[in-house]
Structure formats: structure tokens, C-alpha cells
Write a structure and sequence with these properties.
The chain has 748 residues and is of the alpha+beta class.
Length: 748
């Protein structure tokens, strides 16, 4: 706890604006946090929160006070403060359950409870070094990940070929410790690492003359829905401008990732664009007020600005006028291109339907959790109630149902998706969003030719090109066309540089190919670009577990849960406890995951694994295995080409004594040639349970050759009982993930 006098400005902070406590140094001027000699990148808003708490140590700072001080309150929801506190704790290595530095006063606010030390003497640091900022766009910084080989994550992940060696590789090495180096070197390293982290460890893109970043529009209202409306409006503007030939449009960044205290030139340099489009939006009853501005990032001057005060029904004309003004300032557009732009920005005749649709889009921009998807579905349905022919809203319903089917393994959702997609096609089969949804439907349905047909159409639409290419790459992976898949991913990243969703999808496909390290590289980039998305952190942690990087995996999973509760991270943390031999603790976490998502057979199967591993609860395992089998069978009936689901089904059947059915499911899973390492682990476990020890040994060797680390095998209860693995004390006993409990990284 705080000692009297230790929090004073005179003792805890020198004139240089530097705080010290427990081997941690916070330099306000240089915008650097150094813990144990190692720099900890921290986004500007979170850094500002930390400074506010350090400035008044021991005092309770209310949530509203912090929101006012750091964000101006009216433009954000309290969730941004929760995420900022989670980032501060990650940088300080502070456990929220047993805090040493940041204490939460439930529903009230936060206080700094550490002991500040006397400030160190001011080092002689070059002004040019101190001026280097950390993440000028305000995006949350990831905890310092291990350094990867190669020139950057995009090169390391995409350059894989069919000849790529998928076998075990040495763990990624963390950057060398800095505590034995002079402070000036650590400070310079911190600045470089921070810039590198923000840019996904790639050089800053050079600004193109005809390039623009659309910042999330801000709302001048305190209403939560109005924030989503404003952000949805800016997302629509971004997509529309991306369809203009010759105009480069930066990938979407959430409002929390934009530090509006930075000047235009700084933001433009870091986003790699020549211009920025920003706007404020206010809705007063039937009136809509918009103030828009296009700025030159090289000079800082305003190229164009305009204020609109119109009826709410004039939203389409307002959008079109802004987009045309931007296009006119940057590129020459033909009349047909301007007409296409207007059609894109007026997808419905009903302002009420458009309002509901934007609220649905806005839900998906800020979060990808179950509740956000559910709310988006509700708003898309409301849009269709106002305009029954609104094809883009109907396509949104189709994609939400397909996500539910693929990520939650909800067999019923497939029928909902098929009906929604066919309705969208009947409304407008020329619309890019409809073609994208249809491609997803046929891909999930197992019809690759039809899926490629629709994805090719989408790839030809400049506004949606990156999505069509990334989806097409999935089909190529499933057809064993790895080189084509990687080429499509490269083109998708060229079409939308810095797009976290492309990196996440690339990572998922690399995982399916058994390239764990390449998958980790891609997901590391995804969490650096979108550190606000819990699902990316959960998948990143899951992949680190698969590769045996157990401590980093647990940190990523806890980061995911700090952002928002989610069943995937709970299940993966349960598997970490399973690896440690804490089967009761694992079972408890699996039950919590099931409460959040009772329809996912993988979580039920994991619960069965934990119960079966403990002799005291082994008799209870049959019930969750039986439930998992029933759900898995329904899912496989709808999607027979899911290798992981088939392998899990074989495992459940083996545990329930269905020998022939188990072997047939495993044979079908192996024949698909995907997720080979995970399929091999399931197969080895099933064969061991069925008493086929020699065949189980062969399957385990296949798992090793596919990149499964020995630590996973050594701590698997079934393999230990069968004498197929050494003592867990001779392996790394800290974390594990079952082959299956991972959420799909696909975003909608």
C-alpha cells in the first residue's frame, strides 16, 4: 500500500517528469514505460491514464473524472477506460485480482497504490530521441512479443510455400535484456520498438498523393447509439472511397486507436497517407448536422471543409457530397464513377432503415464478441423491417448466421444463413456484399467452384477487393493450393495495407496448414494493429499454446479476458490448468465457457477431458462426451469437410466405446489433409483409449512431424496413462491447449 509521503511530487517525480517504483520507470516527456530494463509500449490514451493515476498517488480517481481528463468523455463509452486500465496493468505486470499498483474501486474508479521512489538523475538524452512518440495513432500497444526472424510479419507469414518445413522449430526468442545497458540505450530502444510495434514491425508506408485515411467520425451527442451511427457512417464512407480507381484508402482504425491530440502531419506520416478525412456528427430529432474536413498531411492545411445542417432524410445526399468533394480534391473521376459512388452511399430509400443498418455496422467495428454480433443481427433485422428490399442488410444477416455456424459450431445457424443468403441474392445479385455472402455460403457448404465464382466477382470490386481475395485464399487452402492462397493474401494486403483482419485470416489459414510459427507471426501483427479485439488476443494465445510458448500464451489469454469475457479464452486458460495437472480448475473454466456458449461441442469435449483425467470425477465424463458427440455430429452433417470437427467426433466416439465409428471419423479427418497436427493428436488419443498402442505411437510421431511440441504430448493424461509420454516433470508443464478449443479469427 501507499506509504505516507512517498507519493509526493518531490519524492516520486523529479522535475523531468519521471516516476520510479519497483524497478519500473515512467518518463512522461519521452512517453516511455520501462520495466526491469525492458521498454513496454503503451498507447497514448492508456499512458495518459497512467500519468493521471501517478500524479495523484493513493487517491481514488473516478471513472468520469478520468474519461473527462483523457478523452473528453462525451465521445466515448466507459469501456475504453476499462481497456486502457487493462493495457496499463499489462505494461506494469499487475494482476487485477491481487493488484500491486492499480486498484479498482468497483463502480467508482481507480487509484495508484504503489510506492513511488525518489526520481533518478536526469540522463543526457538527445532531444531527437526523446521526441519519438509511442503509437501516434493512439492504438493499444501489445505486450512486447518475442522477436521474429525475417524482415517483418507480412514477409514471414506470407512467404511460406508447399515446401515449407512444418516441423518443430525453436521457440521465438525475446529481445535481449536491457537492464545491463545505459538508460539512454534503453530509451532509444523503447522509442524504436514503439514505432515498430505500431507499424506491425514494417517500415512506414510512403504517402501517396492520391491517398486518404477516413478517421472514425465523432458524435457530438452523449447517446451510445449515436456513436455507433457516426462510426458506421465513416465506415460506409471508407468503403465507398475505396471503390474509386486511383485512390488509395487506408484500412479502418477504431476510434480508440486514434489519438486526436496528435497533429495532422504526424497522423498522416504514421498512416502513410497524404490526406485525412474527419467529421463530427450530431442528430437532433429530425435534423442531421455534419461538419467534415479534408486535411493535407504534408502541410497540415485544410484542403476542403463544409458544414451540413439538413433533414435526417438527406443523409444520402450529404454522404455523396462529402465523398464527391474528397474524390474531386484527390483524383479525376468520370461521371459514371461519381454515379457509382452515389449509388454506393444510398443503398436504401429509407433513412430509418439506413440508420438501423449503420448501428449494426457500428456494433461490429468496436467489438466482435457474441453480444456485438447479436446486437448487429437485431439492427439488421430492424433495417429490413423499414425496407424489406434492403439487400445489404439482408447480406449482413447471412454473414452473422454463417459466423455463428463456423465459430460456434451451431448447426441450426446454417439453415438460417442459407435462407438469408438466398433472400439477399433475390434482392440484388449484383451487389458486392451479396456476392461476398454467397461466396461464404458456398464455401461453408463445401462447393468450392461456386464459392470461387462469387469471390472472383468480389475481388473485381475495388471497394471489397481485399475481402474477396482473403476469402478466395481460404478456398485455395482447402483445395491444397497453398501457393495460390499465399498469393491472394499478398494481394489482399496490397489492396488494404495494415488491415488486421487480413493478417488474422492469414494466421488462421497458416494454422490449418500446420505452420504454427507463421500463424503466430500473422496473429502477432493482428493484435498490434487491433489490440482492442479480444478474439484476436484469444486466438494469438491459443496458437502460442499450440507451439509450446506457454507463459506468453497465458499472458495473451488474460489480456483477452481483460478486454471482455469470452468463452474461447476461458477454455484455453482451462487447458493451461489441465497441462499443470489442475483438472478441477480446468473443469471449472470449461464450465464457464459452456455457460457463455452452450452449443459449442468443443467446450463440452474439453470438460469431458478434464473430468476423465481425474480418477475422482472420471465417472462424470460420459455425459459431456455424449452431449459433445451429438452436437458435433449435427455440425459435421452440415459441414462434412471440417477436419478438426471430424477428429473431435472420432475422439468422443472412442471415449464412449464406439470403436468403428471412431475409426471412420478419424479416417475422414485425415483424408482432408488440414489441421494435420491436431488431427494426429486426436487420433493418437482415440487409438490409445481403444487399446491400439502401436498405432497410437505412429499417430504421435505424425503429430511431432507436423509441429506439435513434445510438451503437449508429455502432459496429456491419456498418453501418460498409456505409457506413450514421459513424465510431465521432464517437459514444460505450464500450458496446453486441446487440439480444438479455438475460436475462428474470421471477422465480419
Amino acid at each position: 500500500m501507499m506509504k505516507p509521503g512517498n507519493g509526493s511530487h518531490a519524492d516520486g517525480q523529479g522535475a523531468s517528469g519521471r516516476y520510479r517504483f519497483d524497478g519500473i520507470e515512467v518518463d512522461a516527456a519521452a512517453h516511455v514505460v520501462v520495466r526491469a530494463g525492458r521498454p513496454q509500449p503503451l498507447e497514448p490514451k492508456a499512458f495518459a491514464v497512467l500519468l493521471a493515476l501517478l500524479g495523484r498517488p493513493g487517491e481514488l480517481l473516478g471513472r468520469d473524472e478520468l474519461l473527462d481528463q483523457v478523452w473528453g468523455h462525451r465521445h466515448v463509452t466507459p469501456g475504453v477506460l476499462t481497456r486502457a486500465i487493462a493495457q496499463v496493468r499489462a505494461a506494469l505486470d499487475d494482476d487485477p485480482q491481487q493488484p500491486r499498483y492499480i486498484q479498482t474501486q468497483h463502480a467508482l474508479g481507480y487509484r495508484f497504490i504503489g510506492t513511488l521512489l525518489a526520481a533518478a538523475p536526469e540522463p543526457a538524452v538527445a532531444e531527437s530521441t526523446r521526441a519519438i512518440p509511442v503509437r501516434d495513432d493512439g492504438s493499444d500497444a501489445a505486450p512486447a512479443p518475442p522477436a521474429a526472424s525475417g524482415s517483418g510479419p507480412e514477409h514471414a507469414s506470407v512467404a511460406a510455400s508447399p515446401e515449407h518445413d512444418p516441423g518443430p522449430r525453436a521457440p521465438l526468442q525475446a529481445a535481449p535484456p536491457l537492464w545491463h545497458r545505459p538508460w539512454v540505450i534503453a530509451l532509444a530502444a523503447a522509442a524504436v520498438l514503439a514505432l515498430v510495434a505500431w507499424l506491425g514491425r514494417e517500415p512506414p508506408p510512403a504517402a501517396s498523393g492520391a491517398s486518404v485515411a477516413v478517421l472514425p467520425f465523432t458524435t457530438l451527442s452523449d447517446t451510445r447509439e449515436d456513436r455507433y451511427f457516426a462510426e458506421g457512417l465513416s465506415a460506409e464512407m471508407l468503403n465507398a472511397l475505396a471503390g474509386i480507381p486511383g485512390l488509395k484508402v487506408a484500412a479502418w482504425r477504431p476510434s480508440e486507436a486514434i489519438d486526436r491530440t496528435r497533429d495532422v502531419r504526424t497522423q498522416g506520416r504514421l498512416l502513410g497517407v497524404a490526406t485525412l478525412l474527419d467529421a463530427s456528427v450530431r442528430r437532433d430529432g429530425e435534423r442531421l448536422r455534419v461538419s467534415a474536413r479534408l486535411s493535407d498531411t504534408r502541410s497540415g492545411y485544410t484542403l476542403w471543409s463544409r458544414n451540413y445542417d439538413v433533414d435526417a432524410d438527406a443523409v444520402f445526399d450529404t454522404q455523396a457530397d462529402i465523398a464527391e468533394s474528397v474524390a474531386k480534391a484527390l483524383v479525376d473521376t468520370l461521371p459514371e464513377e461519381r454515379e457509382s459512388l452515389r449509388r454506393r452511399l444510398a443503398p436504401t430509400h429509407s433513412a430509418m432503415a439506413f440508420d438501423a443498418y449503420l448501428l449494426g455496422v457500428g456494433q461490429l467495428l468496436g467489438s466482435r464478441d457474441q453480444e456485438a454480433r447479436r446486437q448487429a443481427t437485431v439492427y439488421f433485422r430492424k433495417a429490413l423491417e423499414a425496407d424489406a428490399g434492403f439487400a445489404r442488410a439482408q447480406a449482413g444477416l447471412c454473414r452473422m448466421a454463417l459466423w455463428d455456424f463456423e465459430s460456434n459450431h451451431n448447426a441450426k445457424a446454417f439453415d438460417d444463413a442459407r435462407l438469408a443468403c438466398l433472400r439477399a441474392r433475390n434482392m440484388d445479385q449484383t451487389l458486392g456484399e451479396v456476392n461476398l455472402a454467397l461466396g461464404d455460403l458456398y464455401r461453408v457448404q463445401g462447393d468450392p467452384e461456386q464459392a470461387l465464382h462469387y469471390y472472383d466477382l468480389v475481388a473485381g470490386d475495388p471497394a471489397l477487393r481485399w475481402q474477396g481475395l482473403a476469402r478466395r485464399a481460404q478456398v485455395h487452402v482447402e483445395r491444397g493450393e497453398d501457393e495460390r492462397a499465399m498469393r491472394d493474401f499478398r494481394q489482399a494486403l496490397q489492396a488494404s495495407p495494415g488491415n488486421a483482419e487480413v493478417h488474422a485470416e492469414l494466421g488462421y489459414q497458416q494454422y490449418r496448414l500446420g505452420r504454427y510459427r507463421d500463424a503466430i507471426d500473422a496473429y502477432r501483427t493482428a493484435v498490434e494493429l487491433r489490440p482492442d479485439l479480444s478474439e484476436y488476443w484469444s486466438m494469438y494465445g491459443a496458437l502460442l499454446q499450440l507451439a509450446g510458448d506457454n507463459d506468453q500464451a497465458e499472458a495473451a489469454l488474460r489480456r483477452s479476458l481483460a478486454l471482455e469475457p469470452n468463452e474461447s479464452a476461458l477454455s484455453n486458460l482451462g487447458t493451461a490448468l489441465y497441462r499443470k495437472g489442475d483438472y478441477a480448475g480446468a473443469a471449472d473454466l470449461y464450465r464457464r465457457a459452456i455457460e457463455l456458449n452452450p452449443g459449442n461441442f468443443l467446450y463440452l469435449g474439453n470438460l469431458g477431458d478434464a473430468l476423465e483425467a481425474d480418477p475422482r470425477t472420471a465417472a462424470q465424463a460420459r455425459a459431456p462426451y455424449a452431449q459433445a458427440l451429438a452436437l458435433a455430429q449435427r455440425y459435421v452433417d452440415a459441414k462434412p469437410d471440417d477436419a478438426l470437427a471430424l477428429a473431435a467426433l472420432g475422439w468422443y466416439r472412442a471415449q464412449l466405446g464406439e470403436r468403428d465409428g471412431a475409426l471412420e471419423s478419424l479416417r475422414r479427418a485425415e483424408a482432408l489433409g488440414l489441421e494435420s497436427g491436431e488431427v494426429a493428436v486426436f487420433k493418437a488419443a482415440a487409438l490409445a483409449v481403444l487399446g491400439q498402442r502401436e498405432q497410437a505411437q505412429v499417430a504421435l510421431q505424425a503429430a511431432r512431424e507436423a509441429g506439435v511440441p513434445e510438451s503437449r504430448i508429455a502432459t496429456h493424461a491419456v498418453f501418460r496413462r498409456a505409457g506413450l509420454a514421459g513424465s510431465p516433470h521432464r517437459a514444460v508443464p505450464t500450458a496446453e491447449i486441446s487440439p480444438a478449443p479455438m475460436a475462428s479469427p474470421r471477422g465480419e
